[in-house]
């Protein structure tokens, strides 16, 4: 019996403009709550953007954000991963010639740091203006990273214009520290401790609620969803997902521009007598 539904956001629950049918989603969420089914947002996005997306609905949801680096129920934070000083310094040395071109951002719990010669531009319609402005407002532009508090670093992100997969593959093959690179889509790359991914984050929620992976329905479209989709037999790759992701999932959901996630959940509820 399904007791938890987990979904990615960009390219999955959200449409091509980074939006979702709020009224339809709220109706579905109410039905799930009545059945005691948890709804989990499993995304590479930071929790700040996720809260902007869902606004007043946010307290009714649970989160595996930052590709598993941040895990929260509606009332309790279960994980805030941190990157060690040694790994952060090794990362900066590894990319020392590309810190500007790859638009590297180092973040603590309260502030994000980027080199002052980096230029950001809103390149995708999938991020709404309010969310983009909130991202920029959180940044502090610095001449170098020497003043960053490396003892409290929570995440590292990059925004690479091209050859994203090659950058990820080379880093994961050659970097000697306890970090790995994963895509967040559209050129964004998250740098995480090797043991952190969406599946490990969801496992914390399963333990919290005493559930098993067989009770999970999961949706995704990207390479950073592979571990999540592989952990349950009720896995759905979106129609817009690449073949490498579709091969991991056991089912296919309609395209994200057709509200594929909501369609599948509605059919599930209909079969359960709703």
UniProtKB/TrEMBL annotation:
CDD domains referenced in this protein's UniProt entry, alphabetically: HAD_YbiV-Like
SUPFAM superfamilies according to UniProt: HAD-like
Gene3D superfamilies: 3.30.1240.10, HAD superfamily/HAD-like
Superkingdom field: Bacteria
Transmembrane regions: none
Pfam families referenced in this protein's UniProt entry, alphabetically: Hydrolase_3
PANTHER family on file: 5-AMINO-6-(5-PHOSPHO-D-RIBITYLAMINO)URACIL PHOSPHATASE YBJI-RELATED, PHOSPHOSERINE PHOSPHATASE
Name of the protein in question: Cof subfamily protein (Haloacid dehalogenase superfamily)
